[in-house]
Amino acid sequence: MHEKHPGRTLREHMDQGVVAAPGAFNALVAMAVRDAGFTAAYVSGGATSVAAGVPDIGLLTLDHFSRVVREVVMGSGLPVIADADTGFGEEEMTRRTVIEYHRAGAAGLHLEDQVFPKRCGHLDGKALISVEQAASKIAWAAKASADCSGGEFIICARTDAKGVEGFDAAVTRANAYVEAGATMIFPEGLATADEFGRFAQAMEPLKDRRPYLLANMTEFGKTEMIPLARFGELGYDIVIYPVSTLRAAMGAMVGMLAELRETGTLEGRLGAMQTREELYKMVGYTPGTAWEFPA
Length: 295
Description:
Number of strands: 8
Oligomer: single chain
Helix content: 40-55%
Shape: globular
Number of helices: 11
CATH architecture of the largest domain: Alpha-Beta Barrel
Strand order of the largest sheet: 1-8-7-6-5-4-3-2
C-alpha cells in the first residue's frame, strides 16, 4: 500500500490551521514532542550544530544532518520540516540534499540565501548570495522534489534579506523564490507582529494561491514573543520553535550540574527529573518484554 507522503500530511495540517513545530535535536526529544500532542516537528541547524559541539556556521555534513532528520522522523512519527542551511553546496548538492532528506523521511526542508559560511538568522553581519543564484538553487530543489516525490516534498525558501537589504528586498526575493518553485516562504529576522502581517499580505498575489508561510519564534533573537494563535491571524501556516527544547534542557542541566558540584547530591532535584518509568514509557519499553524496533 502506498503511504501518504509526510509533505502531504503537513499540508493537510496547515490547511486546517496554524501548526506549531517544536525543534527536536534527537529521537528522544522527538518522542517528547509527539507525546505532548504536537502534529509536526522541526530539525534546527542551530540545535543540531551545537548539540555536536560546534557553532551554527555550516560546519556539519549532509550525512550528519540526514542522520538527525531520520532519527527525529522515526522518534516522532510526525511530519518533519528540516533546516538545510545553504544546501551544503551549489545546485548539484542542493538536489542531493532534497533527495537525501526525502529518503530520511522528512516532509520538507528550507534553504536560505546567505553566503557560506552562514550565520544564525538573528545575528548581524550576514551577507546574501544574488537573487538569481538563490532562485536557481530553489529551482533545482523543486525539480528534485518532483523527481523523488512527485512534488510532495515541501521546498521552503528562507530569505535573510530583511536584516541585510531591508523589508522590501525580502518581499522581492520571496516573490522570485516562489516563481522559481518554492511552495513555502520563511522570512527570517522579522521583528514585530506588524512586520509579519505586512509580509504575509505582500505574498497574497503570488501565482494561484499564496505560498505557505513559516514563522520562526526563537527566543533571545530579533523577534518579539508572538503567540501561535496570533501568527495564525497574521496569515502564517507553521511556526517553528527551533532551539527551545535545547535551551530548556541545557538551562536545567547546567543548574543541576552546578548543584551537584556544590552539594555532592541531587536529592533536591529529583522532583524536576524524568523518572525511569516515564522514560521507559516514552520509548515504549517494558522491562522483561522484548522490544520491537518500529516498522
